[in-house]
Amino acid sequence: MSVFVPPPTERSWFGHPRGLTILFLTEMWEMFSFFGMRAILVYYMTMHLDMDQEYASLVYGTYAAFVYFTPVFGGMLADRWLGKDRAVVIGGATMALGHFMMSYEALFYPALCMIALGNGLFLPSLASQVEGLYRNGDARSKSAYNIYYVGINLGGFLSPLVCGTLGEAYGWHWGFAAAGIGMLLSLVIYLAGRRYLPPEPAPGAEARAARAPMDRAARDRFALLIGIAAIVVIFRGAYEQNGNTIALWADTGIDRHLTADWSIPMTWFQSINSLAVFVFTPFLLARWARLAERGVDTPLLARMAFGATIVGASFVALGLVAAWSEAHGTRASWVWLFVWFVVFTIGELHILPVGLALFGRMAPEGFRATSIATWFFAGFFGNLLAGALGTLWSQMNHGLFFMLAGAVSGLSAALLFMLGRRHRGVGQHGDVGGTPVPVR
Q1: Which tens digit of pLDDT belongs to each residue from 116-137?
Q2: Contact 64/45 with Cβ under 8 angstroms?
Q3: What radius of gyration, in Å, describes the C-alpha atoms of the chain?
Q4: 144 and 262: one domain?
Q5: 231 and 85 share a domain?
Q6: Contacts of 97 (CB under 8 A, 6+ apart)
């Protein structure tokens, strides 16, 4: 694989190659469009298209599932035929078109397909260009993905505030249009700054490279990854209620009044997750670093089990709040939902980024892309499970539903804990740096 070697006199932005700023801004605006559209999707279906809640949850879950499914094949297309640069441009343009198509009711389903297909080309092809910006041994590369991940969450934080506010105040079509404009900005930034990005080998060059066959040890390791992925499917059945039934409860079960004349827009709560990622990630990384310095090494599977436990406990606590509110015929304070998002995100940071790092680290030599694809498939099946679970929202007490979601997450925690005890050495001795693939 060819490596981009910047000229010695190349100017940098913020201490890093200028290409990282281009990728950062491109990803930030893409995430703005992605999360902005997602923040209002379930409201649009239930309030504007008058879909039944059960059907809307299935549509939401199926769409979210295919967002994880398409990058598996999009990455293959980029590697073998299109090339990363062309894949980003085609994918970005396709996504922008899909977002604008969302403004027309008759194009609703084709628009969802366009966004999912464009995402499949865009997502893996953009992020995989970060590594090529640095010479081998460049110490700055260690922090490059952390900076890139900030762009992801900055877009995720801003989008519900902008797209959600426009959608609630002026009509959902305005929210979708804002998401489309965000995607166009992403594409314009990429095209304007592509000269700062590394050249890539001819499409198919890496795919044709010789690769050693998978031996017995590699097969056993890959079998373990498949087992972990299966457990993550269960976890995501609960986790992905974040933008589905949780969004519905923010509308019907929460007292959002701050003053007599003003209420917190229901879509704004979706920004808390990204805000909490900003706040708590440095503390968690510092804590794990201190533990490692003291010789206390927590295996990654144990961290994942702990994270699933936190998420499960947060759902159970929310279930108690919802049950008490419904029993007294009142709405819960917005503070409860704010606190839930904070605790929920702390749990998320222990399992999703850590799990992705584990899949990147444990990948057998020559099969890293296949390993990451397995992680994406866990997101695919997990979102399908979440959509099916969401259909129960209208059929049962909401407090009981949240407790059920907590039990689902608790089951995944128990399975991860048992798997971790059986494979005690998995994920020990190493950093927890992620891979160049955004976590959604």
Answers
A1: 999 988 887 787 777 677 777 6
A2: no
A3: 22
A4: no
A5: no
A6: 114, 118
